[in-house]
Specification:
The complex is a heterodimer of chains A (287) and B (341). Chain A has one domain: Orthogonal Bundle (MetI-like fold), CATH 1.10.3720.10. Chain A has twelve helices and no strands. Chain A is flat and about 80 Å long. The two termini of chain A are 47 Å apart. Chain B is mostly helical. Chain B has one domain: Orthogonal Bundle (MetI-like fold), CATH 1.10.3720.10. In chain B, α9 runs antiparallel to α10 and α12 packs across α13. The chains are: A mainly alpha (287), B mainly alpha (341). Chains A and B meet through α1, α3, α4, α5 and α6 of A and α1, α2, α3, α5 and α6 of B.
């Protein structure tokens, strides 16, 4: 048996040691900005939060005080409408792919869902601007919701399909064997078994879309006042943060931080609330 | 599995009353002449409509971009992508500075993020103590949940001053001779945009790399270890070599992400349509010129030129994404089929 020389062994274990060290270093380098971003967000954001931030609308330039109440409500409002558009379409398409999609149409849809998922969000905003805003002749909350809703669809579609395919075929067969029609089997047996995974997918889509700014720039546009009319321009937290961040005013910078903290908190809270409410199921999410 | 239990109770409720003979209700169900067939058909049609809506969205987007860019396409043709002038007042539009800015900032981001992302994935899957594993992957996933505008905000107020006072003077002093790090120091600019992009795409690269590395069969690792390899040699020969196409796919996917990234880059790149060799200089990207100028474009030609940039961005991103999907698919599918070398 050939023996390994001492030099060879030292050389190789040094390489091993170095690779471990470098990958540990990479992990540290990646985690540092994460902590920096979160730390700064909480530190700067919490320091600038006050009651007025949640209750008042923005004051004109130069006047201190005011808040982002209209933007907070606007974000919730737009996200609600976006979910009403995106969730049913996404689930429907996902169920189709999983239950009927083993054919050419299925493959085409699967491919287009991936294409849609890769569309840059700014391009989505531009397309919806042309399709809705130009025709309506003014910016509107509805147009913003359509842009975000479309962005939610492919994420929900693919995750729903993936999770439905994990439901064992035997359960469907058992239901069909009892004489239950296919639609009922799909809805009350397959989809229900997979429900917590489907909801995970929806929350992923929600989290990804809720903080989007680029598609809202030319659709919801932003608004300094209250608005509850879907056909009118509406404020949203993300647009407000952007506008305040690039402004030259110290007071607005602080408000931007506060807005960013509220936006991230809003996303994290809504996602974890739904997670907890649905965590009774044991079927695991995809990612 | 709890859902199974709840499912069986629903079915119990659906079952006909426990009579020895089949009840009329269930006979209707079983003979198939009931509305069951009709309902099935309606259900299927509804699902197909949902699925087709996905197709319709993509078609509508492409048509819209195509129609809305016709003026610019006929006026400039292919020269649009080579021209360097961007002068809305004179009606001259060339997209080269933006294409250059998009490519340079994205590849700069990749250049920083790829080694880090692969390192993190390697540490997570192969090397770190089990207790840390969940924590690191949770933290890295969290990075992906932060909205892009918040990255931009952090970039303006934390990263840019940091670049201005420490990193850029350091680079200028020791690497200024390369010509890449010279000129006035603003903080914002191509380099800052690249760094923020790197921070944003690291989670993508590392989570996909991790997934692909986990898909490599355990037997591969054991075989290499049994030959007397060290752990690093095991990772290099047994894991990375098998996973390389998938890792590459993850990188390409991250590239697609970086190309279309708008807000954080717009806030950090400086927004000046110039092509400069130094990475300290401000630049402009395709996505940020749209974000900044779209609502201000009053002339039709101006608007169409911006839409044409969007169309180009769309097509490039799609090609990049499809390529990436194919690569990742080739690895994970091969693993599932068990016929992968």
């Amino acid at each position: 048996m050939p023996r390994i020389s001492a030099a060879n062994r030292i050389w190789r274990s040094a390489g091993d040691w170095m690779a471990t060290g470098l990958s540990l270093l990479a992990s540290v380098i990646v985690l540092v900005p994460l902590f920096a971003i979160f730390g700064y967000l909480v530190y700067k954001g919490a320091g600038s939060l006050d009651w007025a931030f949640f209750t008042q609308i923005p004051k004109p330039v130069g006047e201190p005080g005011g808040g982002m109440a209209n933007a907070i409500v606007g974000t919730m409002y737009i996200m609600f409408m976006a979910s009403v558009i995106g969730v049913p379409l996404g689930i429907g398409a996902g169920v189709y792919l999983a239950e009927y999609g083993r054919n050419r149409l299925g493959n085409v849809i699967r491919f287009t869902a991936d294409v849609l998922n890769g569309v840059p969000s700014i391009v989505m905003g531009m397309a919806v601007y042309g399709l809705i805003v130009v025709r309506q002749k003014h910016f509107s909350a509805m147009a913003g919701a359509v842009a975000l809703g479309i962005m939610m669809v492919p994420i929900i579609t693919r995750s729903t399909e993936e999770i439905l395919l994990m439901v064992p075929q035997s359960i469907r067969e058992a239901a069909l064997g009892l004489g239950i029609p296919k639609w009922r089997t799909t809805l009350s047996v397959a989809l229900r078994t997979a429900s917590s995974g489907v909801i995970t997918g929806i929350m992923l889509a929600f989290a990804r879309v809720a903080g989007e700014t680029a598609p809202l720039l030319f659709t919801a546009f932003g608004n300094a006042f209250w608005n509850f009319d879907p056909a009118q321009p509406t404020a949203a937290l993300s647009i407000q943060i952007f506008a305040y961040a690039i402004s030259p005013f110290e007071d607005w910078h602080r408000k931007a931080w506060a807005g960013a903290l509220v936006l991230v908190a809003l996303i994290v809270i809504s996602v974890s609330a739904v997670r907890i409410a649905t965590s009774r199921g044991k079927m695991k999410g995809t990612t | 599995m709890k859902p199974l239990i709840s499912m069986s109770t629903t079915m119990g409720a659906k079952r006909p009353e426990s009579k020895p003979v089949i009840g009329p209700k269930s006979r209707v169900l079983l003979t198939g002449k009931s509305n069951g067939i009709l309902a099935d058909k309606i259900f299927k049609v509804l699902l197909i409509l949902c699925a087709l809506s996905v197709l319709a969205m993509v078609v509508l987007i492409v048509l819209e971009l195509w129609n809305q860019s016709v003026l610019s396409r006929t006026a400039f043709g292919w020269r649009f992508f080579i021209g360097t002038d961007w002068d809305p007042v004179q009606g001259l539009f060339g997209a080269r500075p933006f294409i250059y800015g998009t490519l340079v900032s994205s590849f700069l981001g990749l250049f920083i993020a790829v080694p880090l992302g692969i390192g993190v994935a390697m540490y997570m899957t192969e090397m770190c103590p089990r207790a840390l594993r969940g924590f690191i992957s949770f933290m890295v996933e969290l990075l992906a949940a932060i909205p892009s505008v918040v990255y931009g905000l952090w970039g303006i107020f934390v990263l840019a001053p940091l670049m201005r006072t420490y990193i850029q003077p350091f680079l200028a002093k020791y690497f200024g001779w390369t010509g890449l790090f010279e000129g006035p120091i603003y903080g914002v600019g191509m380099l800052a945009a690249g760094v923020i992009l790197a921070i944003m795409i690291v989670p993508f690269i590392s989570s996909i790399t991790r997934e692909v590395m986990l898909a490599v069969p355990q037997t591969q690792r054991e075989a290499v270890l049994a030959l007397g390899a060290t752990r690093w040699e095991m990772v290099r020969l047994g894991v990375l070599r098998n996973a390389r196409a998938g890792v590459f796919g993850g990188i390409i996917l991250a590239l697609g992400r970086a190309l279309g990234e708008t807000m954080a880059v717009t806030m950090l790149i400086g927004n000046r349509p110039e092509i400069a060799k130094s990475l300290f200089a401000p630049g402009y990207t395709m996505a940020s010129v749209i974000a900044n100028e779209f609502t201000e474009a009053t002339e039709d030609l101006y608007l169409h030129a911006l839409v044409e940039i969007g169309l180009a961005l769309f097509l490039v991103t799609i090609i990049v994404n499809v390529f990436a999907q194919l690569l990742i698919w080739s690895i994970t599918r091969g693993h599932k089929a068990g016929a992968h070398a």
